Amino acid sequence: MIRLLDTFLEHIIDPETAHFKLFFDEKWNSKSMNVSFGHDIEGSWLLCETVDVIADDDRLNRIRQWALRVAEVTAAEGTSKDHGIYYG
User: Fold this and answer.
1) Backbone torsions φ then ψ of 4, nearest 5 degrees
2) Which residues 6+ apart lie within 8 Å of 45 measured at CB?
3) Is the whole-model pTM more than 0.85?
4) How far apart are CA 83 and CA 73, in angstroms?
């Protein structure tokens, strides 16, 4: 579980955009510029649920900071005026 969390931190969450990268080659190079706001917001809370299971304060703090940033970006960029999340 710890390796999976580290993989998200190192490769999947884009540090510049706070979006999850979606497709990769075998060397973790991103193969797509697509954004999935649904995956971003769902992934942010799933990461928080996962990190709650382990006893690692460093990862807990890092994951929670990222999850909050992903959620903020999703709210700012990925929601309509009626608060729906954009699809596609």
Assistant:
1) -65, -45
2) 67
3) no
4) 14
